[in-house]
Structures are given as C-alpha cells and as structure tokens.
Amino acid sequence: NANEHSNKLVKTLLGLGRNAEITEEDLTMAIRTIHYRFVIGLTDEMEESVRRFNVFLGINETEENIMGQCMNEYFGHGIKK
Question: What is the rounded distance in angstroms from the CA atom of residue 74 to the CA atom of residue 3?
C-alpha cells in the first residue's frame, strides 16, 4: 500500500511512533519540514551543490577563509574535477 510508505515517512520526519495516527496537520508539517530543512545536491554538479549548501547554511563565500581554500582544493579554479 502506497499510503503505508507515505505514512512511515511522515512519522519518521515528525518523530512519531510506529503506531501513531497521522492527520492532515501531520502531513502539512512533514511537507514544511522537507521544504525548509532539506537541500538537494547533485554529484555531477558538486561545485553548484556546495554553493547551494553554503547559501542554505548562511556561509559567506565571498570572504577569504578556510572554506574558500577548501573549495579551491577540491574544485580548482573553475575547473571541474
């Protein structure tokens, strides 16, 4: 049953027990959690994915810092590795 899998995901996202009953409000909260708490990245576009993670986490990429050195080490200067 497709609803069983959906309900399991909703329960997991909300930290509810296996036997908990799911309401429309629970579903809305689970959707909100996914919307505000998850960032998707692609390994084929790693540099762009890291940039998105940084935006989501509030990391300032314009400052000269360890993060910038790390990006250069792993991604080079605009060269895909």
Answer: 42
Q: Amino acid identity, residue 1? A: N
- Both tokens of 79, joined, read 């060269």
How far apart CA 56 and CA 45 sit, in angstroms, is 17
Closest CA to 42 of 33, 51, 34: 51
Return the top range by mean pLDDT from 1-10, 13-22, 36-45, 64-73.
13-22
Structure tokens belonging to residue 56? 């989501």
- Spell 7-27 as b/e; 16+ CB within 10 A means b: beebbebeebeeeeebeeebe
The 10s digit of each residue's pLDDT in 22-62 is 999 999 999 999 888 887 888 888 888 888 888 877 777 66
CB 51 within 8 A of CB 61: yes
